[in-house]
Each structure stands twice: as structure tokens, then as C-alpha cells.
Write a structure and sequence with these properties.
The protein is an alpha+beta fold and about 45 residues long. It has one domain. About 45% of the residues lie in helices and about 20% in strands.
Length: about 45
């Protein structure tokens, strides 16, 4: 994904950090969903 393992760990484990774009990329890469909007609205790919 082009980011460090530490960044992925923080995106998964510390929701208070502002890692929205990374979380969105992770959801889209590792699930059958596409994220719409900043509130994690999911739709099928």
C-alpha cells in the first residue's frame, strides 16, 4: 500500500488519530466494498 507497517497499525488501533484516507484505502483494498464519503458509507464494488 506504500505506507509503513507502523502507519497501518495506528490506523487499525488508534481511531482518535486522523488517518481517514489510509483507513478508506485499507477498506477498499481488503474488502469487497468501496467507501463513499468521510463517514465510511460502504457500497459493493
Amino acid at each position: 500500500m506504500g505506507v509503513s507497517q507502523t502507519s497501518i497499525f495506528h490506523a487499525e488501533e488508534t481511531p482518535e488519530q486522523a488517518l481517514v484516507k489510509l483507513r478508506m484505502r485499507m477498506i477498499e483494498k481488503y474488502s469487497p466494498y468501496k467507501v463513499k464519503g468521510a463517514f465510511y458509507f460502504l457500497s459493493g464494488k
